[in-house]
Amino acid sequence: MARVRVGVNGYGVIGKRVSDAVALQKDMKLVGVSDVVADYRIQVAAKKGYPIYASLGEAADEMREGGVEVAGTLDDLLEKVDVVVDCTPAGIGAKNKALYEKAGVKAIFQGGEKHELVEASFVAQCNYREALGKDFLRVVSCNTTGLCRVLGAIHRAHGIERARAVLLRRAVDPWESHKGGIINTVVPETHVPSHQGPDVQTVMPELDIVTMAAKGPYNLSHIHFAVVELKKQAKIETVIKTLAEAPRILLIRAADGLQGLNSVIELMRDLGRPRADLWEVAVWQDIASVKEDEFYLVYQVHNEAIVVPENIDAIRAATELERDAMRSIRKTNEALGIVK
Question: What CATH number does the domain containing 79 carry?
């Protein structure tokens, strides 16, 4: 089987997860990862046998001094790959685009970059076909991915007249909690819509959606509260069945003890998920309800993990390794262990 050669630039929260996911795919080869530091994350990558490259030439010596064997620079890595997944901090990817163009490699960017940087913003179940063969794709942010998965499934099956959602975001990623974060408060975003609504429309331009957002003093993922007006009335059982059949949506119940963000992450630990990752959107089945033509739901979005399978599917779409969305989704899910 022909395998696409993949490099990952940036080995942080998303980069390390994408690297592991690429390494699990039968039709991909992880050629190497690049970064600018030699901290514990890069040291773990080296122990896994991932070739390490310096994203900046001047960082190579410091990385070697930190005990990391450096195989070369980012330019060297780009000579060996078909596609690079840019997982660098927001804004850095835009600066890197010229390097990828010069090297003649395709690139997958993350949601921190602007839609205008790329040829298409991407969620696998929503617009896979649009992404086929594109040189530059952007996997949208964690919150936007969650919105697109849930609302996209409902919209295709029942039609959405309008959607309104309130997002409570985690204050800081767990790994950098020591650097700061709010405590004993909730901080609302000062504009409506929050950026996630317009971002959804880069993937689903026809959807009437408005979002509001705030961040709270916790770091175990995000939670969304959505009110969806359907184009025609539907029974709650019908809508729940739609979500149950959609890819990467996990139905959970508070009645089973899954009463908060923490218990769902604990469930992922008990299931043996790497890093306790929740790749799916977790929708509370016993909270979901319908009144006339309005559907109400609450669901959890794991900011550290949800976009990882989307990056894998984006690689397949960009390289046309797989032209069918559901076949790519199934391959990714099987490799990661995503099951209903």
Answer: 3.40.50.720
Read off the CATH number of the domain in which 162 is found.
Answer: 3.30.360.10
Asked if residue 110 and residue 8 are part of one domain, the reply reads: yes
142 is catalytic: yes
Q: Where in the sequence is the domain holding 45, given as residue range(s)? A: 4-139+307-336
Residues 96 and 181 in one domain: no
Question: Is 161 in the same domain as 266?
Answer: yes
Identified catalytic residue from 87, 126, 142, 148: 142
pTM score, whole prediction: 0.97
> How confident is the model over 164-209, as pLDDT tens digits?
999 999 999 999 999 988 999 999 999 999 999 999 999 999 999 9
Q: For every residue of the chain, which 3-state class applies, written as one string?
A: CCCEEEEEECCCHHHHHHHHHHHHCCCEEEEEEEECCCCHHHHHHHHCCCCEEECCCCHHHHHHHCCCCCCEEHHHHHCCCCEEEECCCCCHHHHHHHHHHHHCCEEEECCCCCHHHCCEEECHHHHHHHHCCCCEEEECCHHHHHHHHHHHHHHHHHCEEEEEEEEEEECCCHHHHHHCCCCCCCEECCCCCCCHHHHHHHHCCCCCEEEEEEEECCCCCEEEEEEEEECCCCCHHHHHHHHHHCCCEEEECHHHCCCCHHHHHHHHHHCCCHHHCCCCEEEECCCCEEECCEEEEEEEECCCCCCHHHHHHHHHHHHCCCCCHHHHHHHHHHHHCCCC
Same domain? 201 vs 230: yes
C-alpha span between 281 and 73 (Å, rounded): 37
| pLDDT, tens only, 235-274 | 999 999 999 999 999 999 999 999 999 999 999 999 999 9
Number of domains in the chain: 2
Whether 297 and 312 map to the same domain: the answer is no
177 and 59 in a single domain? The answer is no
